[in-house]
Amino acid sequence: MSKLTVEGYGTFEVPADKRLVLALIDEAGVDQLHACGGNCRCTTCRVEFVTGEPEKITEAEKLKLADKGLTGVRLSCQLLCEQDMTVRAISRLEGSGRADAGSRPEPEIHPEPVWTTK
């Protein structure tokens, strides 16, 4: 198990290798956006890391962040809770104007992860 700290929400025990997007929803109770269902297509599941940012990144996340010109953020749908981390939930349903956060992401990362380093 790892510890996930979400600023403004608290610290939570998370099962090993759980997707960060699901840990934010299930353990921390964050109204985290994930409009594409956690498939690395929309970037609405963005978080900012305070500490514990993973060194590894999926090729899909790396390409999507570059395509959108995003820096300083990571996609919670493409990360596993493999270590203790502290994040800011910056992409929430509240205030987004969206009807819902998106369909629930599956337990496994999609597309099939090809891991690399940042």
Order of helices and strands: EEEHEEHEEEE
The CATH superfamily is identified as Beta-grasp domain
CATH architecture: Roll
The end-to-end distance, rounded to whole angstroms, is: 24 Å
**Could you name the CATH class?**
Alpha Beta
Give a quick account of the main beta sheet: strands, pairing sense, barrel closure.
Answer: 5 strands, mixed
- State the low-pLDDT regions, or none: none
**How many strand elements?**
9
Overall morphology: globular
Helix content range: 10-25%
Radius of gyration: 13 Å
Q: What percent of residues are in strands?
A: 25-35%
How many distinct folded domains? 1
Class from helix and strand fractions: alpha+beta
How many individual helices? 2
What spatial order of strands do you see in the largest sheet? 2-1-8-4-6
Q: What is CATH's topology name?
A: Ubiquitin-like (UB roll)
Average predicted local confidence, pLDDT = 97
